[in-house]
Amino acid sequence: MKTVTEEGLQRKLTSRQLTMIAIGSAIGVGLFLGSTVTIRLAGPGVIVSYAIGAVIALVMAYALAEMAVVHPLAGSFGVYAERYLSPWYGFVVRATYGFIQMLAIGAEVTAVAIYCGFWFPAVPQWLWVAGASAGLVAINASRVSRFGEVEYWFALVKVVAIMAFIAVGLALITGMGPWPAAGFRNLTDGPGGFLPNGWRGVWLALTLVITSYMGVEVVAVTAGEAEDPQTSIPRAMRTMVLRLIIFYLLAITVMLMMTPWNRIGEGGGGITGSPFVRAFATVGIPYAGGVMNLVVISAALSSANSNLYLTTRMLFSLSRGGYAPAWLSLVYDHGVPLRAVAVAGAGMGAAVLLAVYAPGQAFLALYGTAVAGMLFIWIVILFTYLSFRRSLTPAQVARLPIRLPAHRAAAVFGIVSLAAITVTTFFVDGLQYTVPSFLPFLVVMSAVYARMRST
Predict the structure, then answer these.
(1) CA 23 to CA 154: how far, in whole Å?
(2) Count of Cβ atoms closer than 10 Å to residue 284 Cβ
């Protein structure tokens, strides 16, 4: 039986698919490619950076889950901000999320081109970007149940691969097989020890590490098309966050124990490959580097696929709210807003241009630009959550199927941490201009909002 929401979308995403879509969105270039930069900044101390990021991500995930089960809507936190803070926040959050997800999609397909260079260095990056983009648009143009199933298997590949990476890495570390045991020495015996750049490096790395966890909000965005959101959203959120933290912390730790950090954290300003691929290539396992490269390609495609879905639904929500052209919210017979899908693909067009004119810097240019916008959105979500909680009666709180412990203190901790990370971006190479470049965008969006309100 087909369940259709009041917005015209279809509730066809199962809890199984929701969990994998969330993992697919979060486990992408932030881990597989962005860790190149974080390892360079913090050395083995990046493990601590990922642990701090995990705590902030947990706060965010539980806060979003609480709101999503009460308001299972496609616009999710944009609609919540409009309801509990102000219409300006509701518009700006949705517009910002749509814009930066377009950039994130561009970063993901750029990562695909970088990975393909491992096998085909002579092929221009823009060809890989264009091919990946066309495939992703086709997947998102199909019915949501089909998208959910494709993304489930996409994400499953990367989950299995990470588990295999961890298992093989542990075998190398403990000396199982023909290789001598690596033990813990690579964490402490490399240049500078465990903290080659001190605690300052750990904190600087957090500016990019936190973006690796950005994707947990996907469960809230998919709430508008989730079957039985009262049970599926809490289950998906708990499962996804737990797996995410385990995968990130174990994968990074194992990688740094396998290989000295200075061999996998590239120097210089560009990014030319995944540290996971370099880790396997360094230890000399036959064909392991190539197999891992295939995995990180599927991971980037999975993340781009999820982000294209997220952007489409946010544009759809803006249109339904009267903040974007009405034609963006036109839903076709199979329950997909195809015109919003086409507009959401704009970030991939930007990636093609960057791949042509600045292939060495394209990833950081796209990924870095999205950082400030996501930090802003997460801060607004936590302020929204505090207002949401104040609006509930004790009886309503008791009926919530998922609750954030010590919710007020946890939310304040998250806000302060994210604000401090935002300031820190000024001191990280490649991210110095993310906040200055975001502020004009915020001004323009405010002007657009004011004009729409006056007409």
Answers:
(1) 10
(2) 9
